[in-house]
Amino acid sequence: MFSVDLNCDMGESFGAWRMGSDAALMDYVSSINVACGFHAGDASVIRRTIEAAVEKKVAVGAHPSFPDLQGFGRREMKLSATEIFDIVLYQVAALKGMCAALGGKLHHVKPHGALYNQAAKDRDLAGAIAAAVKVIDGNLILYGLSNSLLISESERIGLQTASEVFADRTYQADGTLTARTQPNALIKNVEQSCSQVLEMIAAQTVMTTGGEKISIKAETVCIHGDSAHALEFAREINRRLKETGVLIQAVEK
Asked: What is the SS3 assignment for the chain?
């Protein structure tokens, strides 16, 4: 049976864990990416998110970002490769330690926001992220944009990778995501989202905003947890994939 991972960004609140939405989403996804505190999340929210994931047997990943609370980690920053290495090392190590303390095990790392998007196109930045992950734990899986430098640089140094596609974002002809500053960047219709996901998994292609199909590798599918439609999308995508015989499970090591 063909399988795919459904992942969701979580733990992106402060002070109080989003118990209703995050816990409900965990019923429909196979892995989560926990904010490490640099763009969202704090110690208590991280703990409660990990505890819930352990209870629901959902794979836990670290979701490191640029140090940008005000911009939710979605603003580009110009940091050196050494600085990138340090901030990723710090955040992932913290998540790994908290997972171990709470009876879980860190499964993967997925950069957030601008850090993720810049690493898709910047070889030095991608290499710094990969190096930080490997020095922490060479068995961690690196989630990155399909066909990106983050994937190729991680594989170059021996890390296992998972090529990621998006259920709620549109694509450009070069395989990058449409910038959030553009009006057509987000998919808000559940049927459009399901159709895109099913095509990416079955045909390994996606329709761009320009109307052309490009090749894509879909090993894990992201649903953004901060989206107003996240729960609806997760529930319906989960149902449709199961109807077509696709097994939903975390990426295997």
From this structure: CCEEEEEEEECCCCCCCCHHHHHHHCCCCCEEEEECCCCCCCHHHHHHHHHHHHHHCCEEEEECCCCCCCCCCCCCCCCCHHHHHHHHHHHHHHHHHHHHHCCCCEEEECCCHHHHHHHCCCHHHHHHHHHHHHHHCCCCEEEEECCCHHHHHHHHCCCEEEEEEECCECECCCCCECCCCCCCCECCCHHHHHHHHHHHHHCCEEEECCCCEEECCCCEEEECCCCCCHHHHHHHHHHHHHHCCCEECCCCC
pLDDT of the residue at 14: 80
Q: How far apart are CA 58 and CA 97, in angstroms?
A: 17
What is the per-residue pLDDT across 17-64, written as a single tens digit (0 to 9) for each? 565 578 899 999 999 999 999 999 999 999 999 999 999 999 999 999
53-71: pLDDT as tens digits: 999 999 999 999 999 999 9
Question: Which is nearest to 25 in space by CA: 2, 3, 56, 4?
Answer: 56
User: Is the overall model pTM greater than 0.90, yes or no?
Assistant: yes
C-alpha span between 174 and 171 (Å, rounded):
8
Q: Which CATH number fits domain 3-166+218-248: 3.20.20.370, 3.30.70.1290, 3.30.70.920, 1.20.58.110?
A: 3.20.20.370
